[in-house]
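User: What would this chain look like folded?
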Amino acid sequence: MVGGAYEPLSRMEVSDTDFAELSRPERKPGPGTDVGGEVDEALSMFWYRSILRNGCDTPEIDPDWGIHVNADALVEWSAGIATAMERDGVVNAPRVSLDLAFIFGFDHCFFHHCVDSQIALHMLRMFEAGQPLADLRYNHRNACERLHALMPVPQWWFDIEECLANAHVARDPTRLGGLREAFLRYRLLPQPLDGSRGPWALWEQAAMDPSAFRALSYMLWLQHLRGEVDPLGILPELENIMEIGGEDEAFNKFIDLVLEASKDQSGNSDGGSVHDWILNNQDVPILHAFGGFNEGIFRRLDVPIWFHGGHGPEMMRRYDMQQGEWPYGTIERLYSHFRTSEVGSDWDDPFSPDDDDFELSP
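Assistant: Here's the prediction, encoded as structure tokens.
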């Protein structure tokens, strides 16, 4: 050690907490930081901030990237859920409702992180190949923000990333999907095809049908790459259906039209164009421009969580991966409240491949 004597670690007064603090970056937003939120009521206290800054000639990391949470709004929203849970007889409803609301918003935003990571990698590949750095992600989100501001029907439904994010929660590989009925009962997950909640309510078919999830993911890639919200050209047919059968019928058939438009127009029953098919790491052909959004290394990446508002410090302690129970203890606690039976083992492991039966009664 230069400029001072070396002191053995055993004689230094350093706690485990000190080392944890050294390795963990600050997650409290600075004064004056903008507070956002998604349009859907269950996600109005959550928003995701992209990894790369927009408007730069060379790649720059946004130091505030990650999942942002308005902690005060989350506490207020979860209090309403707690009231409904108490009517249902759920024990310790305030704590359970907060965990349920947080884990839903987190996993929804984690899908945005998976998409953002894939798009950022593509932007970096293009830049390294000598292309100007394109603001693919920023341009796409701006187009979607305009749709949310006006909510034009049927154009509003074309923000399919929100549909896929909710479908991701319902079919999550870590088996958050096992809580789907609780998400539905307490209005976190919209009732399927509830037109008042727009693209967030299109989740069911994408969650239940892998081909629908693939087709929508393919369309999401094309939206970014082409800079269009309707790269498959289904809007005229959708408007025609709406004119004849009404808005509800058009909403019901939206994903079917995406599936049909994703098929190979030359008659190949596999669907898509030849150059749209790539092999994943299991040598299985998938219909995506550069791979899907629900598999790969992004599922295991640590994503920063930023808490805004007066309840922020409390939320930081509650959902701290290094010192708290998040995420495993939180998920297990939720399962313990909504489980009625176990399948395949004497002890419940919420991360095992076995599926479980759930009901809404505690």
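The chain has one domain: 35-338. If you want, I can go into more detail on any region.
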